[in-house]
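User: Hey, my collaborator sent me this sequence without any context and asked if I could get a structure. I don't really work with proteins. Can you help?
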Amino acid sequence: MAKEVVVTASKVKKRKKIVKVVRRALLLLLLFLIILYIILEIIYNEGKFTVTLDSNKTLESGMAIFDSLNNSHGKRKLEATPIKFMDNISYKWLPKNIDEEGEGSHNGENYIAYTFFIENQGNEVLNYHYEVIVDDIIKNVDKAIRIRIYRNGEATTYAKKNHMNGEPEKDTVPFEDIEDNKGTIIIEKVSNFKPDDLDRFTIVVWIEGDDPDCTDALLGGEIKMHMTITEEHIEQK
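Assistant: No problem. I've predicted the 3D structure and written it out in structure-token form, which is a compact way to encode the shape of the chain:
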């Protein structure tokens, strides 16, 4: 004989309350996951290497950045086109004329290349400095990253010091020391930038396969960074 099940009003009320709480918790969890997904999309998928003028005062003084000589109207921010995947390569594989290949983004297989210009469109002599700043690093991929900066055809390659002996990697200038994987890794100053002076920059970023730290441990690693241009006024005597 089947056992009789007795459902009271209090049990029904309690069950409805539990269902309501669980439903609300699931909705909150779903909302949290959506927000987290959007944040990660912005940081990692939409994040690009950018070049930014430090302040609006820089624009007022006549300092201008742009990535096409056919459109030299100064901008506040420039964005390089990212690449979805970067495998390690040798610096020997980079095009010999990479600095002259084009304007704006001219990426190749497994490297980022971006050319832009800084011009003094004002009436005063200025100094300025440029910085490359790390925003985030995953899986210590910076150990094998190379950043080559061409300024008016002269190239300098930057890299993190060898972690075993603390010495600069061959033919590179070491990154500035930073803490907690965030901060300025490159800073350089340009002096006596006269009215109508024009500097051409090309930034090249790749993972150096000949670096001893380029191992399977870096697979899946990511790095996010940007460059800022900051102007310094020269006091007139």
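In plain terms: The chain has two helices and twelve strands. You can pass these tokens on to your collaborator as they are.
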